[in-house]
Amino acid sequence: MNQQQINLFFDDLKLSWNKQNEETIKAGKHVMEKMLKREDLKKYLTNQSDNLAKGIELYRDSEFGFILLAYSETKGLYRMPHNHGNGWVIYSVVDGIIEMGTYALIGDMNLIKKEKHQVQIGSSEVYFPGDIHDTQCVSDSVIILRLTSCDLKEEEKQGRIKKFQKPCSLKT
Ligand SMILES: [Fe+2]
Hints:
Blueprint: H1 3-9, H2 11-15, H3 22-36, H4 41-46, H5 49-54, E1 56-60, E2 67-74, E3 78-82, E4 89-95, E5 98-106, E6 110-119, E7 124-127, E8 132-137, E9 141-148, H6 152-157
Antiparallel strand pairs: 1-2, 2-9, 3-8, 4-7, 4-9, 5-6, 5-8
């Protein structure tokens, strides 16, 4: 796998791009599923393992602004509940297992955990703009591809990202 091949994956997505359109998100998920089927993807990423821990930007679309990032995590790493502002996100598992939970927001800051489940190798999870979720690496390590519809640093700068300081137990 090389950069040119990665770029090619996004040609179809660019043709049908409409950031907030559910069809575009479906097309994005399809791109991720096709990438996950590449047997050389894991090797391509683990060959850059030092950078993978920090996160590698594999693709940034200069016209539409969507970004593909690859990163690794180690067992136990927990990311508190958050959303991605106006951006949508697709998480895809290249290696390992990650547990993801979703939340309902009651009022300004009260969270109720709706569900949690484990996402295995070859699977993807989609979160729409505003969807609150948390993640925890439950295998020794995990390698994730994350496609976001926009630059999350900009969402952060504009104050659109909500982050919560406490995890919350699952209420059924
Ligand atoms: Fe997230």
